[in-house]
């Protein structure tokens, strides 16, 4: 029984990984169940047996992606604005194009749109956690600061700099650090500023 369960889990992961690879390469609308099956080395029916639909396989792929992103984000040094941006740019270099395509197609993607809403909410919570000591205490000022940080660190900001303005990764990182620094500057004391000067 254990071996059978392992085999089922391995097949599910192989299908989800195949779907993830396809999503990284092209829009969701251009991917078929047959593409996912071929990528996973299984039959069309096997994909349906495990996930019921293309959407189900895509949801599993995005859950894997979310897990990988969370692993990357756990490496952030809390209170270091500079390191936060470096980790985000690393994430966006790996997955940013998929994130943008996903966000732009969200209204047509059913359950995938709900995952996008969850990802946005999760990003907001993460920002509040990693920037915690650098944020103002007053609720209104804190909310405004978080709104600005969300805009400065959003995948669309990375896309504008990296894809539309064709900046290098290094210049994109410097620009996003400047944006984040501009948001935090009015709220930080001298020792907090010193943390990010390295």
TrEMBL record:
Origin superkingdom: Bacteria
Any one GO MF annotation of this record: DNA-binding transcription factor activity
Pfam families linked to this entry: TetR_N (PF00440)
Transcription in keyword set: yes
DNA-binding region range list: 32-51
UniProt entry keywords in alphabetical sequence: DNA-binding, Transcription, Transcription regulation
Regions crossing the membrane: none
InterPro entries reported for this sequence: Homeodomain-like_sf (IPR009057), HTH-type_TetR-like_transc_reg (IPR050109), HTH_TetR (IPR001647)
Domain HTH tetR-type: 9-69
Listed PANTHER family: HTH-TYPE TRANSCRIPTIONAL REGULATOR BETI (PTHR30055:SF234), HTH-TYPE TRANSCRIPTIONAL REGULATOR RUTR (PTHR30055)
Protein name (database record): Regulatory protein, tetR family
Organism: Geodermatophilus poikilotrophus
């Amino acid at each position: 029984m254990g071996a059978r369960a392992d085999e089922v889990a391995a097949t599910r992961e192989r299908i989800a990984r195949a779907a993830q690879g396809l999503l990284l390469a092209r829009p969701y609308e251009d991917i078929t169940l047959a593409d996912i099956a071929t990528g996973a080395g299984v039959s069309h029916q096997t994909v349906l047996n495990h996930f019921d639909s293309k959407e189900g396989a895509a949801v599993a792929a995005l859950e894997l992606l979310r897990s990988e992103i969370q692993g990357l984000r756990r490496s952030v040094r809390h209170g270091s604005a500079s390191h936060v941006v470096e980790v985000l740019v690393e994430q966006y270099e790996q997955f940013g194009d998929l994130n943008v395509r996903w966000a732009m197609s969200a209204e047509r993607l059913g359950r995938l749109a709900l995952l996008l809403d969850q990802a946005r909410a999760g990003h907001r919570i993460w920002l509040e956690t990693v920037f915690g000591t650098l944020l103002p205490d007053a609720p209104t000022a804190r909310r405004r600061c978080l709104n600005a940080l969300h805009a400065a660190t959003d995948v669309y900001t990375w896309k504008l700099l990296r894809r539309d303005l064709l900046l290098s990764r290094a210049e994109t990182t410097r620009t996003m650090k400047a944006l984040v620094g501009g948001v935090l500057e009015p709220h930080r004391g001298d020792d907090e500023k010193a943390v990010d000067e390295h």
